[in-house]
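Chapter review: from sequence to fold.
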Amino acid sequence: MKKVGMLAAALLCLHGAQSQTVYKVAEPVEWVNTLMGTDSKVSLSNGNTYPAIALPWGMNFWMPQTGAMGNGWAYQYTADKIRGFKQTHQPSPWINDYGQFAMMPVTGKLKFDQNKRASWFSHKTEVAKPYYYSVYLADADVTTEITPTERAAQLRFTFPATDSAFVVVDAFDKGSYIKILPKEQKIMGYTTKNSGGVPSNFKNYFVIYFDKPFTVATAWRDSTLLKDQLELQADHAGAVVGFKTKKGEQVVARTASSFISFEQAELNLQREVGKDGFDITRRKAKDSWNKELGRLSVEGGTSEQVSTFYSSLYRTMLFPRKFYEINAKNEVVHYSPFNGQVLPGYMFTDNGFWDTFRAVHPFFTLMYPSLSGHIMEGLANSYKESGWLPEWASPGHRDCMIGSNSASLIADAYLKGIRGYDINTLYEAILKNTENEGPLSSVGRKGVKYYNELGYVPYDVDVNENAARTLEYAYDDFTIYELAKALNRPKEEIARFAKRSQNYRNLFDPETKLMRGKNKDGRFQAPFNPFKWGDAFTEGNSWHYTWSVFHDVQGLANLMGGRESFTNMLDSVFKMAPVYDESYYGTVIHEIREMQIMNMGQYAHGNQPIQHMIYLYNYAGQPWKTQYWIRQVMERLYKATPDGYCGDEDNGQTSAWYVFSAMGFYPVCPGTQQYVLGTPLFAKLTMTLEDGKKMVIEAPGNSATNLYVQQAALNGQPYTKNWISHQDLQKGGKLVFRMGATPEKTRGTQPAAFPYSYSTANK
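The C-alpha cell string follows.
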C-alpha cells in the first residue's frame, strides 16, 4: 500500500480515506482539524471549542468570530456570517473571554457596526489550521488570512480593486480606548472587557501596524462615526482605516498585545514578528507545531485515527496559557491577575484543575517536565499574590467547579522529580487549603470544617455537591500524604492525611454499593436516587462519582464485596439504560443529554468524573474489559470533525484522555508513579522525551479487531503487570504488545499484576 506522508491533507479528501493506513507522518500539524468540536450550542456540546489560531500554550489566540460581542459561543460551525477576527483568551464558552479586540475588512459602504459589517462565508473556502487560518468573506470580496506567534500575529487581507477598502478595529464595550497615528500607519488601544477574575486596573494593550498608508482614518463610538477624530476613550471605542487597492492587492497588519503596557506590546511585536513577512511567520508557527506535535510519532493507524489523535494532541497543548511576558531586560515578568502589579516570574492561567488534574497535567509531567516546572512556579506566584492557590483561573480566581485539586498537580509534579520552584511555599498553600474556606467557593475547601471534624461534608448543611467534594478532598489528601512523606514532614501530619484519604469510606452505602450523601447526624440522605444528577454530586450522579477513589480502588472493591462484585458494578454502568433525574437543575443540562444520546448506558464520557472508570477493570483482574471499552469509546465518541467530541472538551482533558489511551496507558491516579495499561491504538508510537530519550510502543498486528493484549514485553523481557511506571517510561526503551482478536483471560488476573491501591500498600 502506498505510504502516506506529505499527501496527508489530500488523502483526507479522497473517498474512503478513513480506511487508508498511514505508515509515516511527515508533518503532524497537517493532520490537525481545528474545527473539531465547533458544531456546538448551549443545549448540546460536541466539544464547545473554537478554531484557535495559536502557538502551543501561547499568551494570545486568534479566532474568526461568528457570535455577537460578548457571546461565549463566539464561533459556531453552523453560523453563516463572520463578524470579525478576534484576539481571544477564552478557555471555554461558559467562562467566556477577556483581553479581546477584533479586526474586520469591509469594502464599499463603510460599515463598522458588528452586525452590518458581518459577511457571509462558507466552510468550503475556509482553511483552519493551528498555525494558519484563511477564509473568503463574500460580502466584502476579501480573503482574510491569520498566522500567530505567542503574543503577536499577522493578518493579511486580499482586497478587490476599490477606492473603498477598509479595516475596522473594534476594541469592544465595557471600557476601551483607541488612537490612530496615520503617519506611522498605526493603531493603538486597549480593552478592559472581561468576564471576571481581574483587578480594577486590568487592561489589554494592543498595537497594530499596517504596511500601506491610510486614505481614511477615523474613530467611532458605539454606532456613531466620529469624523476626523483620531483618539477616543469610551464604553465602546473603535477605529476605521481605509485604503485604495488594486485587484488582488494584499494589506498586512502586524499586531501584538500586552497586559503590562503599550511599550511591552511594542516589544512583544518587535521580538516575535520584527521584520518577518507573513509567510515567514507562518512557516515559523508551522515549525513550532510540528516540533511539539512530533514528540509523539504514530504509525500504522487509519487516516481518521491519525487525524483524531493529532487534533486531540493540539487541544491538549493549548491550555494553560502563558500569562507572562519578556521585558526589555529579557526578564520573565507578568501582570498579576490577582493584585494588578507587574511582578517577576512565571504565570499561567485559563485552566480548571477539576478537569485537567486527571490527564492534562500528568501529560505535561511526562512529556514536558520543564513546562510543568514553570507552571508550578506560576502556582507559587498565584499563592503569594492572592493568598490562595487557583483552582479555576481566567485570568484570576473564578467561582467555578469544586475541589482543591491543585494539590494533585503539585504532588504529581514533585513526586515525579520536577524541580526548580519553591515547593515549601506550595506546600504551605496546600496546607492552608485543607483548613480553610476561600473567598470564593472554588478556592480553599468549602465545607472544610465539617469534612475535618466528621470525615465528610454533610448533605444537610447547605453545602452543594457535598458528596463530590468529600470524594475529591479525600483523593487530594492522599496526594498530600504522599508529598508530605517525600518532604519529610512530621509523622503526625503524614498520619493525618493518610487517615483523611480514607474519608471516601464514610459515604459508601453498603445497601446500594454506591456513594451517597450523608446527613450531619450520620444517616444517609433519603430518598436516594442514584440517577439524580447534581445535588450531592457535581455534573453527574452517584453512578459516575462512586468511582472517584483514584488512590484506593482495592479499598472500594473491598467495600463492594470483592473483585467479582466490583466488576459486576463496573459492568452495570454500561448495561443500564441512560435514565436520569434532572430535578436538581430543573432542566436537562447539556451533560445529561450528551450521556443520553451516546448509547453507552450510564457511562458519561462527555464529562470528566467517570473518564478513568474504564481502566478500573485492571484492578480486579479483568483487563480485557478495559481494552474493549477503550476501543468502543475511541471509535464511537471521537472523530476529527466539527461534531467530534461527546461533550465539553474542557481545556484539553477530554483530548488528553484520547492521547493517553492511544499511547496504551492512562494516569488513573496522579500522585503515584503508575500509568494503568489499556490497549494501544497504533501499530507503533514513538515518544521523544524532553531529554531526547525515546520510548517506543509497538503493537504489530494491531487493528480494529485485534484490540486485545495477549502478551507484553518491556525491553525484551516478559511484562506481566497491568501498569507501567513513570521511571520505566522515562528511561526510554521499547514496550511491545502482542495483540489478538479474543480476550486473553490469563494475563493480568492476579493481584501481583494490579496497579497501586492505598489499602494494598498499607495493610
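Two observations follow directly from the output. Confidence is low (pLDDT under 50) at residues 1-18. Residues 616 and 626 are 7 Å apart (CA to CA).
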